[in-house]
Structure formats: C-alpha cells, structure tokens
C-alpha cells in the first residue's frame, strides 16, 4: 500500500489528560488511504533535535481529510508536538504498515492499555459500519482514572459497552486489563483486538489461548525509520526462525505469529 508524504495543517489541539494530547490535522491523502491499526511517522521539529520521525498510530479519520493522533508526552519530540499551535504544518508520512482485519460473524472485544487505546477508536468505527453495537465490547486499562476517563466516555458515546480497570482503583475495578477478560464466557466465536504495552499483550494472548479465542495484537516498539530499513523494530517469530518487523510486517499480528519472550 502506498504511503503519502504530506504537510498537514494542525486544525485542532486538545489536552485529554495531564500528559495526553490529541491533534487533528488535515491530511486528505493519508486519510483516504488509512485503515485501522496503521500508523504515521511524524517529524516533530524542523531542526535536527530530535532528528528522527516519531511513530503514532492513527487514532481516528474524519470527514474532510482529517486525521487524528493521540499521544502521551514522554520525551523531547512529543513535548514539542504537544506545544504546537493550530495552523502549524506537520511533515507526516503514512499510512504505514498492516492494520487490523475485522472478523465476520464474531463478537468483537477491543482490549486497550494506556495510550495503546488510541487505534481502537478507528477500529470501532469500522466495525460499526457492518455490525451492531451490541456485538462490540470495549475493555480499557490504565494506571489511573485520568488516563482513560475521557476516552472511555467517547467509546460510550458511540453506543458501546465499556468496562474499565485501573492499577490504583480510581476508575472501575482495581487491577490489570487482562483481569476483565478472565470471567468472560461466550458461546459465539470471539475476536480479540489488543493494543498496549508488550507485557499486557503477552497476557492477553495467553488468556486467548486458554479460552480458544482468536486474537490480533498491535505491537508497540521503538522505530527509527518506519520502513524496515533500520531493523530497529525486529520481533522474534513464533517459530524462532528469524524475525518480523513491526513497521513492515505489522504493527498488527495474529497472536500466534509472535514469540512471546
């Protein structure tokens, strides 16, 4: 699939939580080609520090060629991005990678942890084009209430059932998001779509194997180029015979394609 390079104007900047921001940019070529689970590479500054683009999952696509990215401020690049004003132009490359495949005749469980929740919005909207809201269940986990309170409400505004869990117990149950999966029992086929930190996804995959559920995971790794040239995002294959590259072969994989080391 072709990736486009656009100078995308920032249309809106929102602060979702203390250190979580959402940018809406006008990037019509990227918007028209994007699928849930794909990502973009963004140059966060005009100079050389930081030198490399930063990867961000495509959070949402809206009418008028709008693309939304949701991110947490964790370093110099994301701090610069959070401080950018409306009207500024961003150098963006995308869409990149392989996204989610929506399963037919299945119940859809969207499982997100922390900022990994971001691409599940785009995915939920795509599923809703062909399925009833009752076939979708959203399970969200984070460290604290502030990280997911607004996002959980936005899923609910789509008519979706949402369960939350936080490590400090400030929203929903106290614990880890995989605990929300433990008591779920379904006679119909289930497809899990997971996105979050690697340890969380490993636990999600283990739970799915026990329950004999299908599962797709979106892996988060460090990326320098986004084009499989730097080999920085290599992940061990399940058969231990070489590696897959998250930027080119993913970021979305079947859970059985990855060695959960």
Word description of this protein:
By secondary structure, this protein is an alpha/beta fold. The protein folds into two domains: 4-96, Elongation Factor Tu (Ef-tu), domain 3; 107-220, Nucleotide-binding domain of ferredoxin-NADP reductase (FNR) module (Rossmann fold), CATH 3.40.50.80. It is 21% helix and 34% strand. It is built from seven helices and 16 strands. The protein has helices at residues 28-33, 76-82, 120-128, 145-156, 179-182, 198-211, 246-249, and strands spanning 4-17, 20-26, 39-43, 54-57, 60-62, 66-72, 89-96, 107-113, 136-142, 161-166, 173-174, 190-195, 214-218, 234-236, 243-245, 252-254. The strands form three sheets. Strands 4-3-7-1-2-6-5 form a seven-stranded antiparallel sheet. The model has no long low-confidence stretch (mean pLDDT 91).
